[in-house]
Specification:
Elements lengths: L5 E5 L3 H13 L4 E5 L3 H10 L4 E2 L3 H5 L4 E4 L6 H8 L8 E4 L5 H10 L4 E2 L2 E3 L20 E4 L7 H13 L3 E4 L2 H39 L3 H10 L3 H10 L1 H23 L3 H20 L15
Parallel strand pairs: 1-2, 1-4, 2-3, 4-5, 5-6, 8-9
Antiparallel strand pairs: 7-8
The structure holds 1,4-dihydronicotinamide adenine dinucleotide and 3-(4-hydroxy-phenyl)pyruvic acid (ENO).
């Protein structure tokens, strides 16, 4: 039996459109309604037939839903939740896909005190945005983290878990605060570093304009992919997960200073030991099949 039969998706960009495509592929009998604040996105969603119905307002999209998923930047979640409050059926479960969780969980609970709230974060994505960037296999073999708030009905959590499993994801549950700490180091800090290094290189480019592009092999090239990620989405993530990001940034800065000292004093052993440790981390990720070097990752479109 399907966990839900009428799903509403608010925000039809990369993640919302991927959820729509994945629902179509894995649960073809589910009735899908969608809405996006941007009329152009609604037009594209209509043309791509991502949903059975594209509504002109968030409220109109949710009137009949048993699951509502907010797929908007985390800074917009509170406003969208307030927008749907009057039209939301009492038994509808509300979820989201935001990259940070504590502020999102708080905003959803505050705006929708009478509904079951099961915040979620599919740890899967690309540097691209918009409805045309999505694809149905995005969640295959990827983690989806659920961060239910205290007092949530376990049945609601189990149904959202079954939903993500049906889309091909593996599901784990943790508190919103723990999620934000873990993701600060595994996702948010790496994005911040990529934005910084590409920004620094782009400043240097004034001096060595053509060389930065010409010789952007290896490491720098990989950073430019991450640094091409959506500005609105990432602005919101850093503002929403401020405390955890600042804590991890503090630790990172201390470690960077230690590395700086090792280079200055010619401490080759310190450098060699660290690089040996980090190589082992990469190899264990690859062994567990969690690396993005799989042939289909981020490239398959349907
Ligand atoms: N991009 C990625 O790789 C991943 C993103 N996420 C999370 O997914 C969420 C969506 O991100 P993407 O799909 O990548 O962004 P996107 O930019 O591709 O799509 C977001 C859509 O939300 C719409 N929107 C913005 N404010 C709205 C509002 N008030 N009402 C209705 N629609 C609104 C925009 O018009 C846009 O079409 C974010 O919270 C992000 O943190 C989660 C996992 C991966
Ligand atoms: O493109 C990449 O490498 C990503 O890291 C995608 C991504 C971005 C944000 C998330 O919350 C989860 C995954």
């Amino acid at each position: 039996m399907l966990p839900f039969s009428r799903v509403a998706i608010i925000g039809l960009g990369l993640i919302g459109s991927s959820v729509a495509r994945a629902v179509r592929q894995h649960m073809p009998t589910v009735r899908l309604t969608g809405h996006d604040a941007d009329p152009q996105v609604r037009g594209v969603a209509d043309r791509l037939q991502l949903c059975d119905d594209i509504a002109d307002s968030a409220g109109a999209a949710v009137t009949d839903a048993d699951l509502v998923i907010l797929c908007v930047p985390v800074g917009a979640v509170g406003a969208v939740a307030s927008e749907i409050a009057d039209d939301l059926p009492a038994d509808a479960i509300v979820s989201d896909v935001g990259s940070s969780k504590a502020s999102v969980a708080a905003a959803l609970s505050a705006a929708l005190p009478n509904n079951q709230i099961v915040p979620a974060h599919p740890v899967a994505g690309t540097e691209n945005s918009g409805p045309e960037a999505g694809f149905s296999t995005l969640f295959h073999g990827r983690w989806c983290i659920l961060t239910p708030v205290e007092g949530t009905d376990p049945t609601a959590v189990a149904r959202v878990q079954a939903f993500w499993r049906a889309l091909g994801a593996e599901v784990e549950t943790m508190t919103p605060e723990h999620h934000d700490l873990v993701l600060a180091v595994t996702s948010h800090l790496p994005h911040l570093i990529a934005y910084t290094i590409v920004g620094t290189a782009s400043d240097l480019e004034q001096v060595t304009r053509s060389e930065v592009i010409k010789f952007s092999a290896g490491g720098f090239r990989d950073f430019t992919r991450i640094a091409a990620s959506d500005p609105t989405m990432w602005r919101d993530v850093f503002l929403a997960n401020k405390d955890a990001v600042l804590e991890m940034l503090q630790r990172f800065t201390e470690d960077l200073t230690a590395l700086q000292r090792a280079i200055r004093w010619g401490d080759g052993d310190a450098l060699f030991d660290l690089f040996t440790r980090t190589r082992a981390v990469r190899r264990s990720i690859v062994e567990q099949g969690q690396d993005d070097a799989r042939p289909d990752f981020g490239r398959a479109h349907d």
